[in-house]
Design a protein that fits this description.
The chain is mostly helical and about 190 residues long. The chain has one domain: Tetracycline Repressor, domain 2 (Orthogonal Bundle), CATH 1.10.357. The chain contains eight helices and no strands. Helix 1 packs across helix 2 and helix 4 runs antiparallel to helix 5. Pfam families: TetR_C_6, TetR_N. One of its GO terms (molecular function) is transcription cis-regulatory region binding. This is AcrR family transcriptional regulator. It comes from Nocardiopsis sinuspersici. Keywords: DNA-binding, Repressor, Transcription, Transcription regulation.
Length: about 190
């Protein structure tokens, strides 16, 4: 691994162990086995290094989620949501570190345009992919209204479960409970 890669790996470790705001440049150096000057040389500042690490972690989680969406696409349309939720819920323990870092990105986005722009693109892609999955069409066939309505509801549904898992993993519902909740919600929305 290069020194730049070592710094990124150290920063990601620090994100998980200490959090974004509590990580110092010295923490990153200790975790990466590099020296303080290497941060400035490769990234310009500790903040830029941390933002890069947060964006990478968010991208990695996006890749894991995309795999779950792809797996559910192979199912018949009525079973897709169940398969997606099953894949999502099963992946949460293994993805916990990425999820923690990704959640920190949302807070950091308020202070960094690069992080905000990257997250906005990822959210838009996620909303479109989820709407396409539920509508049984290709992502480029989903119109903007469906992305804004169905896509954002599905995205909020997924990210809500991620946040619930991070706060209280034992309280996460079963897939059957989540599906039943939707069955109750949908008729209520039609009234």
């Amino acid at each position: 691994m290069s020194q730049r890669d070592d710094l990124l790996a150290g920063a990601r470790r620090c994100l998980v162990e200490k959090g974004y705001s509590r990580t110092t440049a010295r923490d990153i150096v200790a975790a990466s086995g590099t020296h303080l000057a290497s941060i400035g040389y490769h990234f310009g500042s500790k903040d830029h290094l941390m933002n890069t690490a947060v964006i990478e972690a968010t991208s990695d989680w996006g890749d894991a989620f995309e795999s779950a969406v792809d797996a559910s696409r192979a199912e018949d349309p009525p079973n897709r949501l169940r398969v997606l939720l099953h894949s999502l819920f099963q992946s949460l323990p293994a993805q916990r570190d990425l999820l923690v870092a990704s959640v920190q990105a949302y807070a950091q986005a308020q202070f960094d345009d690069g992080v905000r722009d990257t997250l906005a693109r990822g959210i838009g892609d996620g909303r479109r992919a989820l709407a396409a999955l539920l509508l049984d069409v290709e992502p480029e066939q989903v119109d903007p209204a469906a992305v804004a309505g169905l896509g954002s509801m599905a995205y909020n549904f997924v990210t809500g479960y991620v946040l619930q898992y991070l706060v209280d993993p034992e309280a996460l519902p079963s897939v059957d409970q989540a599906i039943e909740g939707l069955r109750v919600l949908v008729p209520a929305a039609e009234e």
